[in-house]
Design brief:
Number of domains: 4
CATH superfamily of the largest domain: Reverse transcriptase/Diguanylate cyclase domain
Shape: elongated
Helix content: 40-55%
Structural class: alpha/beta
Radius of gyration: 31 Å
Distance between the termini: 49 Å
CATH topology of the largest domain: Alpha-Beta Plaits
Number of strands: 22
Strand content: 15-25%
Strand order of the largest sheet: 14-15-13-16-17-18
Oligomer: single chain
């Protein structure tokens, strides 16, 4: 995923721009020139989208600072509410966008800038030399080494570790060839400092005039990829450098193929587990197990090619709802995992669950047609970190328990792990249309319905109760219990739900059926109605009786209903 820096000192404008891009690109946000330049230094960016003026730095000066840290080839797009298009393009930016801008305009301009940058990069790729930073406090030795490498590589020289670190920040060389022992800071100390600053392994080869075998062992033990003794012949140095660069390239390719799920582009199971072990130990947030409900039916009815399209769409939805700093992986089949940094509020988890369920239904209908009746959705088991622990294996088990409870209580919802009363924490976020899709039959066969005895007995008792209502309209009603503005939090949702069930039981007729879906949704089958008038009258009676209960001061319910098709 391409990396885009959004630099804007207006929080609302920055958030809007980030929301437009976050689903398609990995975004990094900065509110000041200093913060933006720091991101340029630490991240290998593909594009910079910045205000024309940022923290008093503007135009050409800002372009210069960006390129010093991000590199000359990273395209810069300026944006502003003022008409500074000419100044922007004259300063070196590749494009300018007037604020405010619609999402399609921004996405088109960003995509075009990245495409042009890629074409430019490809045209120079064959002639572009690999970068090598040479560090030696002895000027003669430094010059000799540079002369050996200059024809084949783009070289940069430094006479101290401090100078070398400044060159690395600016040029990001492919490897560093450094003297092992230098005054002030040794080559090894410089290697550790750079790797701590940039959070990645940096290819190092050390040079030394010391013939002591312990020095060679020390250099390699400290993480160098090779060590060469001075003086050395040009062909030996060139061969050793080429071997390191080849190995680095192979490692990069191997890491890419071994960590990414080929179908979705997310982390695969192994890399997800490896990263989450580290994240859970040091980060605060929410670990989520995410199941794509009813996915097997897609493969069974539409085939595996369509199943792959649904999985790709689901992965894109997860990217859209998560932030660029969050971790998302595919554990296999229809099982996914995510870690959302800094999230502890239930409202945020509920919002993400609702977004995922709404978008996967939309995507499925676009791919399979509006008549698609597979109840696709997401069930999410969540555990809070570090409240529930920091060991990934144990946290994963707890998230799995929370997910099982969601599955058992109707799917398409979320549950936050709790040791005390886990089933009381299930929240469902589906609409009435989604409930009907979950309850409905697919591929209805001719002939009688065959059911297990317990299910048969339930249907028998229901039909017996409603036998006088044959020929009448049957309606389904969805009630969603919500807290009022006056609620002070003293009345538990479970208690309010129990009271609403009792209210429905005592208010409605014996031929009607009531069921609870999760802890906040309630389903009613009105089996003997004449349509709109009877449904409205029944709901009005429930509203009236609910209003007589003390719980109505803390909770109210919304409702929607539909006529069951014959």
């Amino acid at each position: 995923m391409k990396k885009v820096l959004i630099a804007d000192d207006m929080p609302i404008s920055q958030m809007i721009t980030d929301n437009m891009l976050a689903g398609r690109y990995q975004t990094f946000c900065a509110s000041s020139a200093e913060e933006a330049i720091d991101i340029c230094r630490k991240k290998q960016l593909d594009l910079i989208l910045s205000d024309f003026s940022l923290s008093g730095v503007a135009g050409a000066e800002l372009v210069k600072k960006f390129r010093e840290e991000a590199g000359e080839d990273v395209p810069i797009i300026f944006m502003a509410a003022d008409d500074v298009e000419t100044e922007s393009l004259d300063s070196g930016a590749v494009d300018f966008i007037h604020k405010p801008f619609p999402p399609d305009v921004l996405l088109s301009r960003v995509a075009k800038a990245l495409e042009n940058a890629q074409k430019l990069s490809a045209s120079h790729e064959t002639s572009e030399k690999r970068k090598i930073l040479i560090v030696d406090d002895m000027i003669v030795s430094l010059m000799i080494t540079e002369n050996m490498l200059a024809d084949k590589y783009q070289t940069f020289c430094a006479q101290s570790a401090k100078e070398a670190m400044e060159v690395y920040r600016k040029e990001k060389p492919d490897m560093i060839l450094s003297d092992f022992r230098m005054p002030g800071m040794t080559g090894y100390e410089m290697q550790i400092a750079l790797q701590n600053e940039f959070h990645k392994e940096i290819p190092f080869m050390f040079m030394t005039a010391d013939e002591d075998k312990e020095v060679e062992s020390e250099g390699l033990d400290n993480g160098a990829m090779d060590l060469i003794h001075k003086p050395f012949e040009p062909k030996i140095l060139l061969r050793r450098v080429a071997n390191i660069l080849k190995t680095v390239g192979e490692i990069k390719d191997l890491k890419k193929t071994s960590t990414i799920d080929k179908l979705t582009g997310l982390f695969n199971k192994g890399s997800s587990e490896e990263e989450l072990k580290k994240v859970c130990k040091k980060s605060h947030g929410a670990l989520m197990m995410i199941d794509l409900d009813s996915f097997k039916l897609v493969n069974d009815i539409y085939g595996h090619a369509m199943g792959d399209k649904i999985l790709i769409a689901f992965a894109d939805i997860l990217r859209a709802v998560m932030r660029s700093t969050d971790l998302i992986g595919r554990m296999g089949g229809d099982e996914f995992v995510a870690f959302c940094h800094g999230i502890h509020e239930e409202s945020a988890i509920a919002s993400k669950t609702q977004f995922i369920n709404e978008k996967i239904t939309e995507a499925a209908k676009q791919l399979m047609g509006e008549d698609m009746n597979i109840p696709l959705g997401a069930s999410i088991g969540c555990v809070l970190v570090p409240q529930a622990g920091t060991d990934f294996t144990e946290l994963y088990k707890k998230a799995d328990k929370a997910l099982y409870i969601v599955k058992k209580n109707g799917k398409h919802g979320y549950n936050i792990f709790s040791e005390d009363a886990p089933e009381d924490k299930v929240e469902t976020v589906v609409t009435l249309a989604q409930v009907q899709m979950i309850l409905g039959e697919r591929n209805i066969e001719a002939g009688a319905m065959v059911l297990p005895f317990e299910s048969f007995r339930t249907i028998y008792r229901f039909i017996k109760r409603t036998r006088a209502g044959y020929g009448k309209t049957i309606c389904i009603v969805l009630l969603v219990l919500k807290r009022t503005a006056a609620d002070d939090g003293t009345v538990p949702l479970k208690h309010a739900g129990d009271q609403l069930i009792e209210c429905l039981h005592s208010t409605l007729r014996r031929g009607d059926v009531v069921s609870q879906n999760g802890r906040n949704q309630f389903l009613v089958l009105l089996t003997n109605t004449d349509g709109h008038y009877d449904v409205t009258r029944a709901i009005s009676r429930v509203v009236e009786n609910w209003g007589k209960l003390p719980e109505s001061r803390s909770f109210y319910f919304t409702q929607e209903w539909a006529v069951l098709d014959a």
